[in-house]
């Protein structure tokens, strides 16, 4: 099984690339969606976060006000690190189960879409690693236009993440998304060809099909050994 790591920065276009993979039939495990699930009312993650940040972060229906929580953690590095520590075990478990379900369905290639791929040390699970990159000026402008935020708030959100230029140095594949959507589509097609190539032997061994072949070989080996004894 090939687990492709996909990451980027806020407003870099990572979600657009993620959707392109889905459109081409490659399943995506989205860490943001997993994070939403672990924050649902009554869940273990919800209890930890409410205990740490107080009930002021809750909406009237008891769910976490994600916008309010986001404002708190993006303006305070210590609280942001606290939130990451509280939710990391739940998010990791959720991602593992999503991967397992796709493995059971027989998918040979999946994409792991994680904004904090390097920060959470999950890059060790993935190969190749794709970073969606834009220049700082474009990133700032797109974020301000998308979220209708001030320059200061947009900069705080960008600075809360690992710099894209640093992520770029850790990538196997870099998708430059500074240009137009048409240019992005062209670059994506080249990336799609790369990640869709036949599995290596080690990747095949980790797939469901590989596990089946291995079990057959073990069974045959046992039968042969019994006959020769």
Automatic annotation (TrEMBL):
It comes from Rhododendron simsii (Sims's rhododendron). Pathway: Cofactor biosynthesis; coenzyme A biosynthesis; CoA from (R)-pantothenate: step 5/5. SUPFAM superfamilies: P-loop containing nucleoside triphosphate hydrolases. GO terms for cellular component: cytoplasm. This is Dephospho-CoA kinase. Signal peptide: none annotated. It is an enzyme of class 2 (transferase). One of its GO terms (molecular function) is dephospho-CoA kinase activity. Keywords: ATP-binding, Nucleotide-binding. Catalyzes the phosphorylation of the 3'-hydroxyl group of dephosphocoenzyme A to form coenzyme A. Pfam families: CoaE (PF01121). HAMAP family: Dephospho_CoA_kinase (MF_00376). Belongs to the CoaE family. GO terms for biological process: coenzyme A biosynthetic process. It comes from the Eukaryota. InterPro entries: Depp_CoAkinase, P-loop_NTPase. Its EC number is 2.7.1.24.
